[in-house]
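// run 5 | inverse folding | seed 20
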């Protein structure tokens, strides 16, 4: 017998008492064979002699069956995921307001009074100090403004993280909760690629425009946020969804913006104004019925800005000759 064979045989022999006990549990008590679990019959049997070692095993899995991932997620009962949009990250309990018991029956007057007292104390325990009360108010304000602007959940989560950072670094003294919340939401929308204009955000905020802009610059500077200039294409995609234009017109609008960006025409100009001008210019080139007033109403940009910017876009793309014969370069119809 070679040394290699001896070493292999030695490794199979249990050395400690725990290893020996584990080997005995995994072996058949009759023949020492290998044990196999049978999930279908809830049994543990020996693969060599067929002895049923254990019957009626407990199934620790769910009592329901699923056939795809979506159905499995819908039936799962592990609770809601944590979220930065709640001051306690959604981990605390809450007492319902329905005043009904587990069977749906209405509570008596004494029980209703008791539940109301419990709700009051539960609310007090959830916000134990001034920072938590501050955070709760600010996150509610962020959620309200985001709903009014139609911003998705990822923007709200990002805004909540920005506000939490500002609160942690003690940037709020001397500034209103609403102001920092508004600035956080605007910065989050820019970072996540679904920007809204300053005027749009200011219209749903409870502070004036000057305070909003001043607080936004302060938050970005102190937190070192990387906020890139907004891309006009991001605004253009939103404007296109609000008007009934053909696919060729939309394609032409994107081409006008791309050409202008390569030529450096867009530098230093408002991205929302460029997007509105590109949409109007493309409609002119494709002979679509879209007026400057209609584009101005959709985008919130003045008709003067649209006229100036669409002239620059057409010149950069060398499309001035492609205008319809009854339309001049300033947008007037002959």
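// decoded
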């Amino acid at each position: 017998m070679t040394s290699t064979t001896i070493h292999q045989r030695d490794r199979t022999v249990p050395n400690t008492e725990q290893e020996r006990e584990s080997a005995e549990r995994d072996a058949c008590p009759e023949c020492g064979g290998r044990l196999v679990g049978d999930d279908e019959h809830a049994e543990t049997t020996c693969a060599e002699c067929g002895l049923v070692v254990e019957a009626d095993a407990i199934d620790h899995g769910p009592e329901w069956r699923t056939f795809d991932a979506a159905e499995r997620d819908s039936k799962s009962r592990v609770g809601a995921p944590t979220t930065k949009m709640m001051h306690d990250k959604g981990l605390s309990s809450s007492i319902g307001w329905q005043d009904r018991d587990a069977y749906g029956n209405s509570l008596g007057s004494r029980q209703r009074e008791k539940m109301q007292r419990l709700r009051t104390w539960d609310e007090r325990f959830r916000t134990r100090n001034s920072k938590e009360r501050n955070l709760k108010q600010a996150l509610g304000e962020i959620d309200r403004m985001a709903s009014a602007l139609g911003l998705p959940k990822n923007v709200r989560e990002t805004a909540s993280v920005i506000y939490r950072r500002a609160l942690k670094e003690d940037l709020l003294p001397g500034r209103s909760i609403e102001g920092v919340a508004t600035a956080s939401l605007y910065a989050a929308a820019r970072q996540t690629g679904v920007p809204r204009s300053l005027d749009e955000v200011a219209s749903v905020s409870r502070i004036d425009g000057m305070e909003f802009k001043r607080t936004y610059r302060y938050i970005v500077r102190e937190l070192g946020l990387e906020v890139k200039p907004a891309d006009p294409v991001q605004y253009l995609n939103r404007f296109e969804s609000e008007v009934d234009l053909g696919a060729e017109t939309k394609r032409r609008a994107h081409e006008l913006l791309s050409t202008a960006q390569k030529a450096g025409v867009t530098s230093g100009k408002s991205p929302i104004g460029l997007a509105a001008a590109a949409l109007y210019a493309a409609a002119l080139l494709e002979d679509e019925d879209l007026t400057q007033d209609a584009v101005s109403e959709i985008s919130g940009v003045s008709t003067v800005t649209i006229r100036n910017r669409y002239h620059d876009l057409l010149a950069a793309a060398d499309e001035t000759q492609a205008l319809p014969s009854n339309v001049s370069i300033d947008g007037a119809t002959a």
